[in-house]
């Protein structure tokens, strides 16, 4: 049989997916090298440290936030990947997490820094450390209503001035709010809007 007429052997079957996949579990990360490096720079700053799915997160106190972030910038975390927030509406130790995700190009290290804040408590701006924080903080303000002290221009960025509420808060109505009268005052009367009243045509 010539080489070109030989029948190719079928490829071996692929291994089946785990019947019961084992999800990753959070692990204490206080002894992780990235956490120990931060603790050496700002002793006592880390309230909690967790490694989950290969990612390290630390919780720090609001009073030490700027010292921690400044130290991390000095340790080479020059890229602010993201700045966002999470709403834990009924959490006693502070409703919101403000989250900073930092990257160090020298060794591709990434560290997530969280600070817990109560509703109405201001968080210091980080615009002087990372200019890209400007629009990120505006988005957090717009979506969650968290204020950043000394921000150069803390205005809404995804909604508009006069918008009622903050859409990513857990108590924001999932059906949204009717703001048609504010957006289209020449079409919709005050109190009216694109949402038709019940029983309407």
TrEMBL record:
Its EC number is 7.1.1.-. GO terms for molecular function: NADH dehydrogenase (quinone) (non-electrogenic) activity; NADH dehydrogenase (ubiquinone) activity; quinone binding. Keywords: Cell membrane, Membrane, NAD, Quinone, Translocase, Transport, Ubiquinone. It is a peripheral membrane protein. It is an enzyme of class 7 (translocase). InterPro entries: NADH_DH_suC, NADH_quin_OxRdtase_su_C/D-like, NADH_UbQ_OxRdtase_30kDa_su. It catalyses: a quinone + NADH + 5 H(+)(in) = a quinol + NAD(+) + 4 H(+)(out). One of its GO terms (cellular component) is plasma membrane. Its main location: membrane. The keyword Transport applies. NCBIfam families: NuoC_fam (TIGR01961). NDH-1 shuttles electrons from NADH, via FMN and iron-sulfur (Fe-S) centers, to quinones in the respiratory chain. The immediate electron acceptor for the enzyme in this species is believed to be ubiquinone. Couples the redox reaction to proton translocation (for every two electrons transferred, four hydrogen ions are translocated across the cytoplasmic membrane), and thus conserves the redox energy in a proton gradient. Belongs to the complex I 30 kDa subunit family. NDH-1 is composed of 14 different subunits. Subunits NuoB, C, D, E, F, and G constitute the peripheral sector of the complex. PANTHER family: NADH DEHYDROGENASE [UBIQUINONE] IRON-SULFUR PROTEIN 3, MITOCHONDRIAL, NADH DEHYDROGENASE UBIQUINONE IRON-SULFUR PROTEIN 3. This is NADH-quinone oxidoreductase subunit C. It comes from Thermoanaerobaculum aquaticum.
């Amino acid at each position: 049989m010539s080489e070109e007429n030989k029948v190719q052997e079928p490829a071996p079957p692929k291994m089946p997916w785990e019947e019961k996949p084992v999800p990753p579990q959070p692990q204490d990360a206080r002894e992780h090298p990235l956490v120990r490096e931060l603790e050496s720079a700002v002793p006592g700053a880390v309230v909690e440290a967790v490694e989950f799915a290969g990612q390290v997160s630390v919780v720090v106190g609001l009073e030490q936030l700027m010292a921690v972030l400044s130290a991390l910038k000095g340790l080479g975390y020059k890229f602010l990947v993201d700045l966002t927030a999470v709403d834990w509406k009924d959490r006693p130790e502070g409703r919101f997490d403000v989250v900073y995700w930092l990257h160090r190009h020298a060794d591709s290290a990434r560290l997530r820094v969280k600070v817990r804040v109560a509703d109405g408590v201001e968080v210091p701006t980080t615009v002087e450390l990372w200019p890209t924080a400007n629009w990120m903080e505006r988005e957090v303000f717009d979506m969650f209503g968290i204020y950043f002290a000394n921000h150069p221009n803390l205005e809404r960025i995804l909604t508009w001035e006069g918008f009622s509420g903050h859409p990513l808060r857990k108590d924001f109505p999932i059906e949204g709010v009717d703001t048609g009268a504010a957006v289209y005052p020449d079409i919709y009367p005050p109190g009216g809007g694109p949402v038709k009243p019940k029983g309407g045509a």
